[in-house]
Each structure stands twice: as structure tokens, then as C-alpha cells.
């Protein structure tokens, strides 16, 4: 038997299939059951590493998570039974080593059918009370059934469709299915804002926002990484919005990253108008790899007018210049050592890095997790445009596993007109720029003929003692030196 090459060595691979490392599992199975809150959190953290091998893991641990969310923690026989069910669910082997079967089984969350939603809604006592009020007449606030109190404020927006309850064109999810809906919406481990945006487009129930925050706080994967890094920076220099989608693209490279040698780097591409992202994991970040990636994307989406990048060696190479020239794409560059000019792709870089780190923590294949992340990012409303990248690129809404609205319930929709997109983008850009510039430092202003000393990027150290003369000013915070 040969051990699987991975950072954590939690699995074994043989002809029989994929196995959990017995050396990791035995202590977990033999450990005494937790008796307090600290012990229960440790148990959930340990079993969470093996969640991919345990069908319906979220359902199994829900009683334990509910106990942690309670105002007062008390151990009970019911919790003991729940702990034992989790232990019993850990298998010795999993599916045969078939990539398609394994990926499909391990990474696709279960969608909710209309029949399942209807049955759960009919069985929900709270929704039954609310449906009665909506079909008849709402009493005064003080006389409302306590179970329906959370619906009183929005009573004029509620309607009944068979067994389903709607708020406007959004489904009110019965309590029995909320955990699964939350899990599906957070499958790509996006942050609080994006997870809430995905849910608000299709669903509603009382205290939805609070449950999303609680979900992310209790998410073992999200709690183990922090993607917020501060650094000194000059004021932001926004770039005008293009006339339409897929005209001006921004590209960048992330890495090297820990992991398989074939996935040490990531090439990140984003359309400036629609915010449509593309990501490719690769072995290196050479000009050949970038050209191959762009050629694949251009064959599917078409050739843009302009490609903006930083001044990295691969982007400055003759190989890429020749490729873009042959394709008729104008190549432009952001200021050296000032990637904030290319801020849109930089923000996407940060989000992609968090997704990749989440893949490692979730014990999922990195490439599979990135595909899942891209799928969710593309169909989530972007704060800069007010619509999803998918709508602006494809001209229609995407159907996802969160779409369980019956075919005869027509959502109101949202027009993705150019004027609305531009107004939303301008407002978002002004807000983001104001927030960004609060921590920016005033950019010094030099003129041609001034003498300066160059600071080594990333270290803050002055590179040598020799001064260099400014040749000319090339932008708001950019200069060409006599040595260039």
C-alpha cells in the first residue's frame, strides 16, 4: 500500500479505494465522549477533518452544534447518542479510486426538490400558523402566536402558494431545511456578505442574517484562516469602466503555494465590466503557461480589446506580447510595485487565496474546490454592479442548486441595464476609494531633474547609497528614472 502524497497525510490509497489513515482515526474512536463545551468543540474540530468521508455529516452534528449555540450548555444523554452516531459514521474505506465518482460524491451538496420543500413546509408548525394568518386575517400584534412573531413585520409581503410560503418572490424555508440551505450557500466558503447575498436572492426566514453569521463563526474551515493583510499604500487610482463585458480584462499570478507541484501557481483573470472571474492552477507562471491559459479562455469567451497586468517578467515577455499582438489585444501595465492600480484582480486574488486555503482545511481537492468557488462567485450579486457576473456576461440568470422556486412562481427579476450598472459601479467605487484612502499616505511629488533614492520593494530598505535622477513623470504616482 502506498501513502497518498499530501500535506496532511490523512488518507491511504490502494486498489481497494481511498481509506482514512487508521493511525489518525483510532484515537478519535477510542477517546472518551466529551462532557463540556470545550471538549465538544474539540470533538467537532477533529471529526470535521474527516467530514468528506461521512455522508450527511452536517445533519449528524447539528444536535451538537445546537447545544453549543444554546444560552446555557448542558450535557445530556441525547448529546451522548449524537456523539456515538458521528463515531459510527466514520468508515474504514470509501469509494473506489474513480475520479469522476469521487468528485461528484464528495463535493456536490444535495439540492432540495420541490416535493421535499413542499412536504417540509406542510409539516412545519410555525409556517402552518403563518399560512393560516395569510389566508385569513392577521390578529393584532399582541395576539399573534409567538411562533409567528418573526413574520408580523413583513406580513403584507407574504403570500401562499400551495403548501409554500413566499415573501415577495422569495421562498420562506421551513426550519427542517434551513441548515441544508445554509450549507449549500456556504459550500465555497465565501464570506458573510456574499453568503447572505446568495441566500437573499432566493430565500427568507426570520433571523436569516444572524444564522449566516453563526454558521461562519462555527465553520471549522473559515475559522482557521485570516485573509486580511494591511500594508502601506498610496491613494487608489481607479480605472474607468469599459463600455461592456469582455472588453478590458485584468490578469495576475498568485503563488508559489504549498501543495501538489502541478498546482503551485494560479493564473487569475477578471473582466472589469461584469467581474466575471477565470482561474487556472498550474505548475509554473511562465509566459507559455499564461498564453496557454488565455488561449483557452479566449476560445470560449472571445477575444477582448485590452489586457491589463502588472510588470512581472512573464507579462513583460516577448512571448506574451507576440501572442496578444497576433490576437489583436492591446497590452497595458499598471505602475511598478503599485498593484492597487490593478485593484480589481488583486481583490479577487485575495479571495481565491482564501478559497484555496479553505480547500486544504476542508480536505478537498484544490482544483475541485476552485471550480466550486468560481461557480458560486459568478452567480452571486457583486457589490460593485448590483447584479451577478453571470447576468452581465450571459444576459440571463443562472440556475443553481439553490433554485427550488416552482415553475409557475415567476420571480420579479432585476434588469441589468448599462445605466444602472454604471451608477452602481460609480457609487461602489467612490465608497471603496474613500475607505481605501483613509489609510493611504500622501504621495510625494517629484519633477524631472529631482534626485531620489530607490527603496527595495517589499523590504523598506534603501537600495544602495547612489541617488537616481527623475527623468519624467508618467502618472499620478509613477515616474521614469534616468536608469530605466
TrEMBL record:
* EC top class, as a word: transferase
Q: Name one GO cellular component term.
A: DNA polymerase complex
Q: Residues in domain Integrase catalytic?
A: 241-397
What biological process terms from GO does the record include?
DNA integration
| EC number, UniProt record | 2.7.7.49
- According to the record, the residues making up region (Disordered) are 460-484
One GO MF term attached to the UniProt entry: nucleic acid binding
What is the protein named? RNA-directed DNA polymerase
Provenance organism: Amphibalanus amphitrite
Q: Name one Pfam family in it.
A: Integrase_H2C2
Q: Which PROSITE patterns match?
A: INTEGRASE
Q: Which InterPro entries match?
A: DNA/RNA_pol_sf, Integrase_cat-core, Integrase_H2C2, Retrovirus_Pol_polyprotein, Rev_trsase/Diguanyl_cyclase, RNaseH-like_sf, RNaseH_sf
